[in-house]
Amino acid sequence: MAEARRVAVLGLGGMGQPMAANIVRAGLPTVVWNRRPGPARQLAEQGAEVADSPADAARRADVVITMVTDAEAVRAIAVDQGMLAAMPEGAIWAQMSTIGVSETERIAGLVQAQRPDVVLLDAPVAGSRGPAQQRQLVILASGPEQARTRIAPVFDAIGQRTVWAGPAGAGSRLKLVNNMLLAFVAEGIAESIALGHSLGLDRDAVLGALQGSPLVSPWAQEKLQRIGQDEYSAQYPLSLALKDVNLALREVDIDRFAVANSLAAQWQRAVERGLGDEDLTVITRALQH
User: Fold this and answer.
1) How many CA atoms lie within 13 A of 107 on its CB side?
2) Which of the listed CATH numbers 3.90.1150.10, 3.40.440.10, 3.40.50.720, 3.30.1370.20 matches domain 7-166?
3) pLDDT tens digits for 55-84?
4) Residue among 59, 115, 175, 223 flagged as catalytic
């Protein structure tokens, strides 16, 4: 297989659906599967084929992308629903879900034991639903160097650039680093606005002072605009952001990362209050009440 000819995308949630749509738009033959059929039917209207099962999708593809919520879902698709066994010899499995370091190592061991003829790429992405729709994701890729040319048309269809981090597993490590910074930026925004509220400042004045500041990135700028509109619909749900922080803390001595551990505890309380399905910026609202 000199290059990717057909791509299967398994998992069409907030990230997988726009990723698959961009692969279709790039002109790559695409087959899709999702646990709920609605998103797959929408992509069929754009030109994708719809598979009956993960195994059905995988056997038709040269590249298989998994983009689901957690490691349990990845294993269910790969093993219980037959994806890994159905993949053609030499096919690429681009595992793009954020599942952490230990689980990625388990997946790599599974591939080595059951399908050593399949090429595993560990390639989570930096970015949320908006960047996914706009093809502005950054792919944090890792795996065999010889697969880079074959996967390039697929990754180019999904994102603005690909960062190759080393052997499989390095991508997941880099994703945890990226998401920890993102968590602190979101928390910093929330606490700054909440502090202004506690000091009796008008919120619009606080937002106006922060917007355009050299301290505020384009990502944070967009979040500030949404907070100003009390818009907390999920681009990156708080529950998933908390999951990613916990995945990072699981790999380190948490006594050395006390601030991150405190953030996780605060976010856990917000999730228990029923805010987990809203955007992580909803922590701003939680801090003000």
Assistant:
1) 34
2) 3.40.50.720
3) 999 999 999 999 999 999 999 999 999 999
4) 175
